[in-house]
Known about the structure:
Largest sheet: 10 strands, mixed
Pfam family, one: Iso_dh
EC number: 1.1.1.42
Enzyme class: oxidoreductase
Radius of gyration: 23 Å
Strand order of the largest sheet: 2-1-3-14-13-4-5-12-10-11
Protein name: isocitrate dehydrogenase (NADP(+))
Helix content: 40-55%
Number of strands: 14
Binding site for D-threo-isocitrate: 77, 94-100, 109, 132
CATH class of the largest domain: Alpha Beta
Oligomer: single chain
Number of helices: 14
Amino acid sequence: MSKKIRGGSVVEMQGDEMTRVIWELIKEKLIFPYVDLDLHSYDLGIEHRDATNDKVTVEAAEAIKKYNVGIKCATITPDEKRVEEFKLKQMWKSPNGTIRNILGGTVFREAIICKNIPRLVSGWVKPIVIGRHAYGDQYRATDFLVPGPGKVEMTYTPTDGGKPVTYLVHNFESCGGVAMGMYNLDQSIKDFAHSSFQMALSKGWPLYMSTKNTILKRYDGRFKDIFQEIYDREYKSQFEAKKIWYEHRLIDDMVAQALKSEGGFVWACKNYDGDVQSDSVAQGYGSLGMMTSVLICPDGKTVEAEAAHGTVTRHYRMHQKGQETSTNPIASIFAWTRGLAHRAKLDNNTSLRNFAVALEEVCIETIESGFMTKDLAACIKGLPNVKRSDYLNTFEFMDKLAENLKQKLASLPKA
């Protein structure tokens, strides 16, 4: 490859600690030598967020809105210890949460599969993409202790002056207990549906949405009805053209089906279900270091990609002391490839799409040929059995990927 690929506009967000070190290596060794991007960079490192009173995070989100593609490094969400460590002005919110609130959309997680990395669920030969509706339900509920006998009621009071409607939740006759009121919004459910259908179309995989509508006939039934209406009206013909489908499933049936399946589908989960299932599915595939996370907005145009893991603080402490680390960069590389693939889709840029595919293939082929970081060697052999000769350090592995990418791109037919 003598000429660089013209890549278009991308918003890049730098992060913290060991992932920040890896982020710079990815750009230097794997992206910039081959792709000429119109890059809009925002430093979301904790010190710079503090210096700008977190305005930089909002600016980054607004830029993603404008340019439709964001690629984000892992960042620190400060707790009390971090506030003290960095002498922060305050305990700033999660950058991911801030960006999500500004962009809307649904977070989808997907495993990166290598044949030689064992999975806890051995039948999962294809990825399962989990979309979590990260709004409402238990996470915005009002719950309270009922101190003693009495009635708990819920009242809806229309703003147009109509007659209030009261529902009896429970008549506590002999003792107290607990009670909860929770809600969701039609618009939020519609946005969730659009994002889920868009993801299924982009993957070319069927979509399942799970609820417990047999018990929560109106609450979960609303999710089921909205998804079905939108599917029939806007997506059915597109799904049929790709020979894929949409189905609603009961959550218990869906969990059982997922475990028996070979993977290769998108699973849209309500908030609590997604919270639980995304972690269990991640564990089933073996490693969070091999998990992508993509925020898809309901407009179908705007996407933000990132790694599904944290900033790898323990390795950064070793790196600061000049000690050797073996940190897995794969999920961070896939944040770049998924972001660039979306840019390619928006611009109908075949060369950029082929580059993103080639880089993903290089990552998987390199690991499958026996070159990997320590965490993956531990997945194969068990940590106590791993010898130094079984893995590469952080920089050796990046160099190996760069070498293999150069070879692969040289062998591709010229565009």
